[in-house]
Amino acid sequence: MRRERGSRLLIVVALFLAVLAGGRDQFDAFIDATRLPVLVHETSSEVRDRNGQLLRAYTIEDGLWRMSVTADQVDPLFFKMLIAYEDKRFHEHRGVDAIATARAGLQAVRHGKIVSGASTLTMQVARLLEDGTTGQWGGKFRQMRLALALERHLSKQEILSIYLKLAPYGGNVEGLRAASLIWLGKEPKRLTPAQAALLVALPQAPESRRPDRRAEEARRARDRVLDRMARAGVISEQDALAGKTDPAPFGRHAMPQIAPHLTDRAVAQRPGAHDLTVDRDLQRNLEQLLARYMKGRDPRLSVALVLADHETGAVLSSIGSASYSATAGQGFVDMTTALRSPGSTLKPLVYGLAFDRGLAHPETLILDTPAQFGGYAPQNFDGQFRGELSVRRALQLSLNIPVVRLTEAVGPAHLMAGMKRAGMKPKLQGGTPGLALALGGLGVSLEDMVQLYTAFARGGEAAELHWKQGETTQNGRVLSRASSWQLGHVLSAIAPPPSAGAAGRVAYKTGTSYGHRDAWALGWDGQHVAGVWIGRPDGTPVPGAFGGDLAAPLLFEALGRARSGTALLPPPPPETLLVSNAQLPKPLQRFGPRAGAKTLQVTFPPDGARLSSAEAGVPIKLRGGTPPYTVLADGAVLANGLRQSEFLAPVDGPGFSTLSILDSAGQSQRVSIEMR
After folding, report:
1. Domains with residue ranges and CATH for the chain
2. Please, what is the average pLDDT of the chain?
3. What is the mean pLDDT of residues 318-337?
């Protein structure tokens, strides 16, 4: 029986060699007529970080792991071992090794069984492409023909690339890169001799050598490869002996699943490869931080964090929940994009807009007393009133009544416009914005809020947050440089959480939504901006949850882990008005118009006017109001003590400017102009 099988192999070899020698033209036509199978195969969608490191990969159809791989992603030692072990004349033959084929046939006849194989790497690729068998003579003959055809259409490197992608490695693992990640827990860029030998050995018998089921078989196969490589001079005897002492894998490594919510978003937009702005090491560090921070708390709670480089707007870390697989806290829900009430975290924007419009200054005095705004009567969180205090202190204490007074003066529609200029996408419950906006009466996402605070950190200029590499950012001005610096200066003086120890280095604001449904903390230092949200995804109240107690410590820890160096907040821009209350222009010393004051109007220039530059200045014409008047340009005082209703304002040009005119009764009007 064995003799008969050997004779059959010899007959196949003889027939093939006869065809080869029977006529070059006929043989060429025979090979050229070969129909090539599909050469392009689906590979796993992959998402990589800013440095090209794998964040996450996804299985293809039927749950297979098959990942794209190029030669430069593989340790050269693997190629040396593969060719020396499988096909040492790979670079010389044209698809079929005639010497090896003849030798295999003669050995089979002599011994009555197959002693050595004759399959070249190209023939193995042919089998993989057609998913054919190796034991049937007809299949072997077809592989030879296809191998010769492949060599006519593809380079040796392209043939190796197909092998790297399709070689079976046991179970649902195909291709070298997926095998290296799953069986070795690492990319194949750098391999030890033992690791390279294992990856050479597994495709020969992928199921009987699966490390998770047949670890001992996998080890013995690896050691045989090491021995042969030492005899062939590919590695030294010492490397072979050392490699045999390495423990063989005995289980699967989990594929990376870093930034799972963000990677899901990327692949949902477009399957394939994606490069994100995320920093993998920082992302993992912060994921571990959030998981530890939430351990032992109510499992129905979730947490989210976004951290970005505020100079570029690039998101460096985005975490949608503490555990992607958690069921009690709905960990699969990405809370960085969920619409929630921001509580008090919008208050800095109200103050910044008031600074810009000349309505207030950090040292302006404002009333914290019971107030009625139509049918709306806001209350402070603690139910107390503090009388007259500085705007600075009102913001630091996060008082509600002062900020509603300022919102009424700024206008809720202007507050909404400011949010949109910052790149936010706020959602109103009703159709018309009202005074409750300042206290969180709308829906925003954590990404929205970090987007807003990015503008604060950048001196009032927005930078669109982005998490895909190569995306461009669109900038627009939200606040003046002086107003933004004033906000940072005020917020950085808020006492940090007891464990933070970073007073003056982080400007931050906390917030708690109505009913304790959302706890927030947002802030920035000299390098990064970040936001933290904690609550229940289903919106159920969390009694006792406050942004200052629950979210702020996490914010400071995240910024601290991302920070390099001191990352101090910047100095004030030169136009910043740094004076005490007594040194402020009279209209800025106290907020609010005085009784009996005539309505102030600017009759010239109209809002949006384009004017020619003049050395004498811009003509200003007023109606009503109570002199003396004060003029500010982009938050900086140009002139004060003006008693005439018509005067010239010394505006530098060319460019855009926002002029604010204040009267002694505390009224203000503002116009935007362009000097040409």
Report:
1. 2-245 (1.10.3810.10), 343-519+536-562 (3.40.710.10), 593-675 (2.60.40.10)
2. 89
3. 93
3-state class percentages of the chain: helix first, strand second, coil last, to nearest 5: 40, 20, 45
The CA-based dihedral angle spanning residues 532, 537, 539, 545, taken in that order and rounded to the nearest 10 degrees: -40
What pLDDT digit, counting tens, does each position of 456-514 carry?
999 999 999 999 998 877 778 999 999 999 999 999 999 999 877 655 689 999 999 98
Q: How many CA atoms does the CB half-sphere of 339 hold within 13 Å?
A: 9
Q: 646-649 and 618-623 as β-strands: parallel, antiparallel, unpaired? A: antiparallel
Whether residue 103 has pLDDT greater than 70: no
Number of other CB atoms surrounding residue 218 within 10 Å? 24
Instruction: Please name the residues in contact with 357: beta carbons below 8 A apart, sequence gap of 6 or more.
Output: 409, 410, 660, 668, 670
User: What SS3 string covers 122-182?
Assistant: HHHHHHHHHCCCCCCHHHHHHHHHHHHHHHHHCCHHHHHHHHHHHCECCCCEECHHHHHHH
Give the orientation angle of helix 137-153 with respect to helix 2-21, to 10 degrees. Answer: 30
pLDDT(11) > 70: no
Secondary structure, 3-state, 178-229: HHHHHHHCCCCCCCCHHHHHHHHHHHHCCCCCCCCCCHHHHHHHHHHHHHHH
Mean pLDDT of the 24-50 span: 86
Of the candidates 614, 601, 492, the one whose C-alpha atom is nearest the C-alpha of residue 556 is 492
Instruction: Find the mean pLDDT for residues 389-418.
Output: 96
Which phi-psi region, left, alpha or beta, contains residue 554 (left: φ > 0; alpha: ψ -120 to 50)? Answer: alpha
Tokens of 532: 């933290």
Tell me which residues are annotated as active site. 86, 344
Q: How many residues belong to the chain?
A: 676
- Whole-number Å distance between alpha carbons of 368 and 381: 12
Confidence at residue 559, expressed as pLDDT on a 0 to 100 scale: 96
Give residue 27's identity as a one-letter amino acid code.
Answer: F
Average the pLDDT over 633-641 and give the result: 82
Closest among 257, 316, 276, 318 to 49, alpha carbons compared: 276
CA distances to 311, 351, 576, 604 from 573, in Å: 17, 18, 6, 29
pLDDT tens column, 441-451: 999 999 999 99
Give the pLDDT score at 28.
Answer: 78
The SS3 of residue 56 is strand
| Cβ atoms of residues 12 and 106 within 8 Å | no
Q: Does residue 274 or residue 139 have the better pLDDT?
A: 274
* Residue 557, token pair as written in the block: 């820890």
**CA distance linking residue 341 with residue 15, whole number of Å:** 80
